[in-house]
Amino acid sequence: MKSVLSRCLPYLGIALLGLWSFPGNFTSSDGEDRYRVGHAILTQGLPDVSGYGDSVNRSEFRDDQGTFRSYFGLGQSLLFIPMDLPGTLLTGILDLDPAVEFKMKMGITAAIHLVVILWLLFWAVRKISRELELPEPVSLFAAVTAVFGTLNWSLARAGQEEPWLAMLLILALGSGLRFQREGRSVNLAKMTAFLSAGLLFRPSFLTVVLIGAVWSFYLIRASDRQLAVRLFSWWSLAAVCIGTSYFFWNLYRTGNGLNFGYGQAGGTFTGSFINGFIQPVVGTDKGVIWTTPWVLPGTILVIALWRRLSEPVKTAGLLFLILLTANLLFHSTWFLWAGDNTYGARFQAHLFPVAAILFWAAFDRALPAARQVVMKGVVALIVILQIPSITFWETLEYLQCERGGWTELSENGSPTGALGQISMRYQNIVSKAATGQVFQFSPPGKPEPVLSDYAATWNFWPWTVSSCIPESAWTPLFLSWMSLPAFSFILIFNRSGKTLNKTKGA
């Protein structure tokens, strides 16, 4: 019984911290669009097509809430279907205004989705960390870092696909390392399935799939031709299945099986290669080393202790470097190299749970797991440093720049490049806590742009649900709210860590 409880406690902590950060709904139009497709499939079979797009205009669907974009893959929408069942059944027995009913259904789905994907990512990272022979508490720290120490926390709340891609990548990596250790072909089959499934979420995941395919053939000895033929047939079958599903889905929603419906005036791959390659990593506008501060010292630590790392960890490290480079190269000339207008450069987010494993593997070599007090302090700091990514609506700084005229002055291809999104976020936090208002970024001679209450509100459910909180209460309420998860999460974290240590010692 105690063993079962010890296994459940970390997941309770993950759920509590996830729901504490929940804003009441998806925080991006991308998540809402995907949900509407899933809801339409659940209630009517397929969403209605509003109009086909072209090289400039995007294809659209239509439901009782109006029109919405249709250029996303089916993967996440299909996952939303079972998550949508509770809300759809509940609102079916209530007499609500249609607009309220829609928000309620989507809000329930968003809450379920947030907890489920955080749980799955936590479980996947913990699983592979243990397979890499990291001590039990260290695997726990790595999993918490992967979930709450990267932009995947913010993106899970938004309903974006990166946390799902991260989970599939981690499982595929684990399957490949397991084959390398055990030689069982079923692990290569799992690896093929996990990576191929990622394409249903985002076509550009193809860079990861291709690298994974090359690695899978590399793992097979040259003399094992029979397994090589089987592996080729698995990849071929996956390619046919994914390609066929995309063809017919595109045909339905765009009228052309080869058209994804993503029209972009001026072209999609028209950005600056240098900006698109350098800025997402080290740029002070949206660079990952600033939005995920443990990455830089973690990289230095991994390099310094490289010789002391195990061979499987080294393999994971080399794969991470190759995957990151390929991902940056692919998106470097994308018209919005950062991914879109969300906080930080989200196109790289799905890779950094692997970096979390590398970081904690190196940390364990530098500081034995017995000295857990330091490690607990580090992981707590990592979580705290990621909280700014979830404090506001993701597009707040973009709107401030766009409506204030700063976007036109940007030289790095990002809408917030003129001021730097990261510094803007911290200025907004300080100003909001002190005055109840976000920072005023007004160019000389121009009036301050008007922002919606939602865009300038703390992005947690008490504030998004109620607009009646007086300005004088902003700071004490916000600070109290920020302290809430600490007690429950630390208590659960400590109890589970102690129980795991006792179990391991036994």
Largest sheet properties: 3 strands, antiparallel
Summed over residues and divided by their number, the pLDDT gives a mean of: 87
Distance between the termini: 15 Å
> What oligomerization state is this entry in?
single chain
By DSSP, the count of extended strands is 3
Structural class: mainly alpha
List the helices and strands and how they pair.
Elements: H1 2-20, H2 29-44, E1 48-51, E2 60-63, E3 66-69, H3 75-92, H4 98-131, H5 136-148, H6 152-158, H7 162-182, H8 185-198, H9 206-219, H10 225-254, H11 273-282, H12 288-291, H13 295-304, H14 311-331, H15 352-366, H16 372-386, H17 396-404, H18 421-435, H19 461-465, H20 474-505
Antiparallel strand pairs: 1-2, 2-3
Give a description of the structure.
With 506 residues, the protein is an all-alpha fold. It contains 20 helices and 3 strands. Strands 1-2-3 form a 3-stranded antiparallel β-sheet, with helices on one face. Helix 2 crosses helix 3. The longest helix is centred in the N-terminal third of the chain and has 34 residues. The chain is globular and about 65 Å long. The two termini are 15 Å apart.
Features of the shown structure:
single chain, 506 residues, 3-stranded antiparallel β-sheet, mainly alpha, 64% helix, 2% strand
